[in-house]
Design a protein that fits this description.
With 889 residues, the chain is of the alpha/beta class. It is built from 30 helices and 38 strands. The structure holds ligand MGD (2 copies) and molybdenum atom. The site of one ligand MGD has 33 residues, from helix 10, helix 18 and strand 33. The site of one ligand MGD has 36 residues, from strand 27, strand 33 and helix 30. One of its GO terms (biological process) is respiratory electron transport chain.
Length: 889
């Protein structure tokens, strides 16, 4: 519709407000209670204007066709100024001493020329709450605008905040009014971000010293890929804020990306290369360290062949670094034994999704969840592991979407779900077959889609005869009636979505889990069709998708080109000017076995703490000890680095240039915000210099050049370049040429399988590799906690440790009673491999017989307990099922 702002006609969309119209006309209109991410409040009255001949609050008044808006109406302006003066009159003078760029209130006061109050009314003396390490409350600066409360409710969905008290005394409060740190606040930072006055702030934010630089980059924690602004002062991160309107996170963030940055300045950062001399690791020069690595790798390669060397490349590092890592191993060493952390988490997704649909990625973008009316969330705990997505799912559910959760634990989202299918750990395939059978029996399938676009229906239907709900109820321990409700909800939805995580993949039959979950989408025609939301995999590390995309895999070249395909090898060899070795390499678990068997002599580990995070760590340590030579790049002296012969100091995502690929296949730019500490340098630089020391040239002088070369070898990424990403923003793959804008939704025309059809999988349910028995009667599930990240190498070096200081063994009240233990009692947890001791935490999240812990601390060593069972198809560890015995100590 057309409206008139002053003399300027502007076009605005349906539902636009007077404020939107003013902004569309390029006019600044002061606001205090308004935030684009939130529903309008209309409480502060500083945005008063004259519209359609009335004085109205611009933020809440709908624009109407031909409306005349006068921005400079004296009466409206006087009323707005009066409202502002009333607000300011209650505040202490320090409210106006905050730098303008950090206080909306100061900016609004400047606009109205309010420098002090005329009224000098009673000011508050309500004190501060500095109990929380990140969220600091100065109650006297609170103007009760309600933005923080709305942020916590409408964006984050935690509902931790409220406005307490009356009238003049109204002030934000968290939880039931006790210390902030004890409230349910999850420290997403949304309240701090929206607060217009500094009442809610974070350490250093209101510091009057100016910010030197602000760099827009991509978060280096989980695979969601939030766009963040990193603000630097005195060479240190002063604050990190989410970029409003950013494509993935839309101005939201979580406790890690937003606040857990102190690791970057930690005194424990590695700042110089280390070389083992006897039992000790001692500092050395780069020349000496690289010379030694070059000499030892060359000697081992020349004596035993390239196969004697393996490399684990980092899913934390950039695409460009992963691209160089695999090029280095393949061309300089002559080995395909390169793998990445995807082996430990979503290798079954890559294999399963490729087999079902054709490509190794999720099928749809995150944005599609906005119109999902039923979300099937299986084996994922996004409110802790992918909080920005967890918040989006929460909001969809609050807006009426149905939610089915498949998880042995009662997670936050399980508690919110319409149906919680709380199957036994390792029972996914049975549960999905039960649902598939009910979809078929209930007539919820899409016959036309199945006829035209899918294969395997007859075999699957035949197999499903063995999975009536009653049998599934027995196999998985889920009530048949709940299965029926879940099938009906997913079956009847118009826009059903599947979102899943490690609870599906980290199993002895993880690939079968992915395939039988994909079956549900295929049966419903809910993948590759317009309006459907497809299947989203919540990939784990910041660049675990990219590490595999770049070919840091033993059987695949960049862009998922099979190593076994001579044409693919040739295409790559042509660009590299060197042959690609033919023999497939070792997967991570095979590397350890080969080391112990004496076939693998050198292990090169970039940014993965295998001694802490790989399963059965006793076995991993034996493998490290068995290797003649171990090299490690890390930010810190990790458990693995402590076992290495040479440790090379790497830099973090905050200090380097490149790209990451997030969980929905978006290439996003990573830009250096900080200078590297000491002599530390990027994995990119280290690999190039090492190749040089070995008499080779990897080409690719810059990350941009490496991306360009990758685009030349991998048709899937042919259209990706740094230049384009800088100009156009994130691009989804496949992106096959410079004019291809990337494919956010896959398979609308055809699936990428050989016959162009989605493949239903008729795989039987098989029990987990590890089984409880009378000696080890409990099932230990391992996973994540909100506050810490994987090995914890970064989050343990931040104030996140005050939010979660130690690991616990979570168990049900029934089991605690049977064991005679209380909250906090130390419990010896014994698996068939080791014993660790953990304090008990009694919770309704666990069903009797099942216990849970995470793996974020080196001590207790959770992975000394986990087993060597792996997914039969991909070698992904069975982290989610370990038989244990419990004994109070
Ligand atoms: N805060 C935080 N965030 C992270 C990480 C972190 O360490 N900390 N790590 C990142 C990484 S690398 C990854 S891969 C992702 C992982 O993210 P998620 O996949 O969400 O992580 P997990 O907590 O390991 O497991 C998810 C859920 O699977 C459930 N589960 C276990 N067994 C089964 C089963 O048999 N069936 C079903 N249906 N469910 C089961 C668990 O109870 C758990 O709730 O998170 C990323 N984000
Ligand atoms: N019991 C149990 N164990 C698990 C899991 C589980 O669910 N249960 N989950 C598994 C999963 S899904 C994953 S992904 C793994 C994660 O395991 P890891 O990959 O070992 O853990 P991270 O902490 O993500 O990072 C590894 C190391 O990389 C370093 N690092 C960070 N950025 C960079 C960089 O840019 N360059 C270099 N060179 N180093 C860097 C960090 O300091 C850290 O030491 O853990 C697995 N282990
Ligand atoms: Mo992961």
């Amino acid at each position: 519709m057309r409206v008139l702002v002053g003399d300027t006609p502007v076009e605005v969309g349906e539902g636009a407000t007077v404020l939107d119209a003013a902004r569309a006309a390029g006019r600044y209109l002061p606001t205090l209670c308004q935030d684009d991410r939130l529903s309008p409040r209309g409480s502060c009255r500083v945005c008063l204007v004259r519209a359609a001949d009335r004085v109205v609050a611009a933020c809440t008044t709908p624009a109407t066709e031909d409306m005349a808006i006068q921005m400079d109406d004296p009466r409206a302006r006087e009323a707005a100024r009066g409202a502002l003066e009333l607000i300011v009159s209650e505040l202490p003078s320090r409210a106006l001493e905050i730098p303008a760029e950090r206080s909306e209130l100061v900016r609004v006061c400047t606009h109205f020329g309010v420098t002090d109050t005329r009224f000098h009314g009673a000011t508050h003396r309500r004190g501060v709450d500095h109990s929380h390490p990140y969220v600091k409350l100065d109650r006297d600066l609170c103007i009760a605008c309600g933005r923080c409360v709305a942020m916590c409710a409408e964006v984050q969905g935690t509902f931790a905040l409220e406005l307490a008290g009356r009238g003049f005394d109204t002030v934000v409060s968290a939880g039931t009014g006790g210390p902030w740190v004890d409230s349910p606040c999850v420290a997403c930072g949304g309240c701090v971000d929206t607060c217009p006055t500094g009442a809610l702030s974070e350490p250093g934010l209101l510091d009057p010293a100016p910010i030197a630089t602000t760099t827009t980059t991509t978060c280096g924690y989980c695979g969601i890929g939030c766009t963040l602004d990193v603000h630097v002062r005195d060479g240190q991160v002063a604050a990190i804020t989410p970029v409003h309107g950013a494509p993935v996170n839309r101005g939201h963030a979580c406790v890690k990306g937003r606040f857990a940055h102190a690791f970057a300045g930690s005194r424990e950062r590695l700042t110089a290369p280390l070389i083992r001399r006897g039992d000790a690791l001692e500092e050395a020069s780069w020349d000496e360290a690289l010379g030694l690595v070059a000499a030892r790798l060359t000697a081992i390669r020349d004596r035993h062949g390239g196969q004697a060397v393996a490399m684990i490349s980092s899913a934390r590092a950039t695409n460009e670094e992963n691209y160089l890592a695999q090029k280095f191993l393949r061309t300089v060493v002559g080995s395909n034994s390169i793998d990445n952390c995807s082996r430990l988490c979503h290798a079954p997704s890559a294999a399963g999704l490729t087999a079902s649909f054709g490509l190794a990625g999720g099928t749809n973008p995150l944005d599609d969840l906005d119109h999902a009316d039923c979300i099937l969330l299986a084996g994922a705990n996004p409110t802790e592991a992918h909080p920005v997505v967890g918040a989006r799912i929460t909001q969809r559910v609050l807006a009426g979407a149905r939610l089915v959760v498949v998880d042995p634990r009662r997670t936050t989202l399980a508690a919110l779900a319409d149906v919680h299918l709380r199957g036994r750990p390792g029972s996914n395939v049975a549960v999905f077959h039960g649902l598939a059978r009910l979809l078929l029996d209930g007539g919820y399938t899409d016959e036309e889609f199945l006829t035209r676009r899918a294969t395997g229906l007859a075999e699957l239907t035949e197999l499903l005869r063995d999975y009536p709900p009653e049998r599934v109820a027995e196999l998985a321990a889920v009530p048949a009636s709940d299965l029926a409700t879940a099938a009906r909800l997913y079956g009847q939805a118009e826009h059903p979505a599947i979102v899943y995580g490690l609870g599906i993949t980290e199993h002895a039959h993880g690939t079968d889990g992915v395939r039988t979950l994909a079956n549900l989408a295929i049966l419903r025609g809910a993948v590759g069709t317009p309006g459907c939301c497809g299947v989203l995999t919540l990939r784990g590390q910041n660049n675990v998708q990219g590490a595999s995309d770049m070919g840091a895999l033993p059987d695949l070249l960049p862009g998922y080109q099979p190593l076994a395909d001579p044409a693919a090898r040739q295409r790559v060899a042509r660009v590299w000017g060197q042959p690609v070795p033919e023999r497939p390499g070792l997967r991570i678990p095979q590397m350890f076995d080969a080391a112990i068997a004496g076939r693998l002599r050198a292990l090169y580990v970039i940014g993965e703490d295998i001694a802490q995070t790989d399963p059965d760590s006793g076995h991993v340590r034996a493998a490290l000890d068995a290797c003649e030579f171990v090299v490690c790049h890390d930010l810190f002296l990790s458990q693995t680095a402590a076992h290495a012969d040479v440790v090379l100091p790497a830099v973090s995502f905050l200090e380097k240039d490149g790209t990451f690929v997030n969980f929905d296949r978006r290439f996003q730019r990573v830009r250096p915000a900080l200078a590297p500490p000491g002599q530390a340098t990027s994995d990119f630089d280290i690999l190039r210099r090492l190749a040089h020391a070995m008499g080779a040239d990897l080409g690719c002088p810059t990350p941009a050049a490496a991306m360009a070369e990758c685009a030349a070898v991998a048709p899937l990424f042919a259209g990706i370049s740094h230049d384009r990403l800088d100009r156009e923003g994130p691009l989804h793959w496949p992106c096959r040429g410079p004019r291809d804008t990337g494919q956010a939704v896959l398979y609308l025309d055809r699936f990428a399988t050989a016959d162009g059809r989605a493949a239903l999988a008729a795989r039987p349910y098989l029990p987990p590799g590890e089984q409880p028995d009378t000696a080890f009667p409990y099932v230990l599930v391992t996973g994540r906690r909100l506050e810490h990240y994987n090995s914890g190498s970064m989050t343990r070096r931040t104030p996140n440790t005050t939010l979660l200081a130690e690991e616990t063994l979570d168990l049900s009240a029934a089991d605690a009673a049977a064991l005679g233990i209380d909250d906090g009692t130390p419990v010896a947890v014994t698996s068939r491999r080791a014993t660790v001791t953990l304090p008990a935490r009694i919770t309704d999240e666990l069903a009797p017989g099942e216990v849970f812990t995470a793996f974020h601390f080196p001590d207790p060593a959770t992975n000394s307990l986990t087993s060597a069972h792996t997914d039969t198809a991909t070698g992904c560890p069975e982290y989610k099922v370990t038989a244990v015995a419990l004994r109070p100590t």
